[in-house]
Every structure is written in structure tokens, then in C-alpha cells.
Design goal:
By secondary structure, the protein is an alpha+beta fold. The protein is 39% helix and 23% strand. It is built from six helices and seven strands; from the N terminus they run H-E-E-H-E-E-E-H-E-H-H-E-H. The longest helix is centred in the middle third of the chain and has 20 residues. The chain is elongated, with a radius of gyration of 20 Å.
């Protein structure tokens, strides 16, 4: 490519943002929604980063704010050609590290916060929308009323999914549409989710 036809760093970023397709191919059975994780974003981004002569560097830092620990994920998109090492842009995102969670080691808690922060960091860098346009959704079909299962810590998969749902919505409204949850179990779930 001649000097005058070389893309600038921002032109490369714009092309990556236009071309990236990171589908929401993972289903949360409890919440009834699809989502993407950080690994699926990496897989979608790698070929485009290579195609446009860039590099991506991800770092994590632990930051304390108001007595709470957060993982700060930072993504640096670096131009490899024509100016190797030039930072095109840098984006950061934070995720709070929970103090404790049933059946999680401290390493798993930090890793979970890191994955979450990196996902939103990359979403910001590549302009990945995590929400569907409400106007494009089909209306819900009326369903037959069913007896709701009770959500307890003894139902580990449902409990784990409820924690994710509670963290994303900060309330029990969505959870209670699917299951019955006692006041005692709401308190336990709040503690496990480190919400409120």
C-alpha cells in the first residue's frame, strides 16, 4: 500500500467497529436471555485486529474505592503499521469484586470480576451493544400460568443464575416472574450477590 493509501489508527478502529460480529450465543436458562462473554468478543476481534495491522493489549488492576475492591480492565488498541507501538485508543471499565460468594474461592471471585470488566471494556472499545432495541422485539406470547419452583441455595444452578440476574437488574422483579423466593432466601441471595 502506498504512503498516501495507508489507513490511520482511527480509520482502522472504525473499520474494526463496523465489521466485528460478536453474537450473543450463550443462553442464561434462568433469566431467559442470550448474552456474549469476553471469550466470544476476543474470537470475533482477533481476525480483524490482525487484518488491519493492530494489536490488542488487555490489563487488569485492582482499585479500592470507598472500601470496596474493583477490577479495572484496560484495553489498548495499538497500531502495528505504519507507526508500530502507537496507541490508537485506550478504554477502561470497572467491575466490583464481591466480598464472598457461596462455593467460590478468592481467585474465582477476582477472575469473575476481571471477565466482567473486560467484557464491558471490549464492548466499549468495539461499540458492542448489549441491549436489543425494544421496537425490534416481538411481543411476548401469553403463557399458561404454571406453578413456580422455589428458589433455594439447594438448587445451585438456579441460585447461580439468580445471582447473575440480581446483579444485572438490582431487584427481584425479574427473578420472581420465574420462581418463588422467600424473604429469608432473598436475604441470602443479596449476600451472595453482594447487592444492596
Amino acid at each position: 500500500m502506498s504512503e498516501e493509501n495507508k489507513l490511520t489508527g482511527y480509520q482502522k478502529l472504525t473499520l474494526i467497529q463496523k465489521e466485528i460480529k460478536a453474537s450473543k450465543d450463550i443462553t442464561n436458562d434462568f433469566g431467559g436471555f442470550n448474552y456474549r462473554n469476553v471469550e466470544s468478543i476476543y474470537e470475533a476481534a482477533k481476525p480483524l485486529i490482525d487484518k488491519y495491522g493492530c494489536s490488542l493489549i488487555m490489563t487488569d488492576d485492582i482499585v479500592e474505592k470507598a472500601g470496596k475492591l474493583y477490577v479495572k480492565a484496560t484495553a489498548k488498541l495499538i497500531d502495528s503499521d505504519p507507526d508500530p507501538g502507537e496507541i490508537i485508543t485506550e478504554v477502561s471499565a470497572f467491575a466490583r469484586e464481591t466480598e464472598s460468594r457461596t462455593k467460590f474461592s478468592s481467585e474465582q471471585l477476582t477472575g469473575s470480576a476481571s471477565s466482567y470488566a473486560r467484557k464491558y471494556c471490549l464492548g466499549g472499545l468495539f461499540l458492542l451493544d448489549d441491549n436489543k432495541d425494544v421496537d425490534s422485539m416481538k411481543p411476548d406470547k401469553p403463557q399458561k400460568p404454571q406453578q413456580k419452583k422455589e428458589l433455594t441455595p439447594e438448587t445451585p444452578e438456579m441460585w447461580k443464575n439468580a445471582i447473575v440476574s440480581l446483579k444485572e437488574t438490582n431487584g427481584f422483579e425479574e427473578i420472581e416472574k420465574r420462581v418463588f423466593i422467600s424473604d429469608k432466601n432473598k436475604e441470602l441471595l443479596r449476600k451472595d450477590a453482594d447487592v444492596f
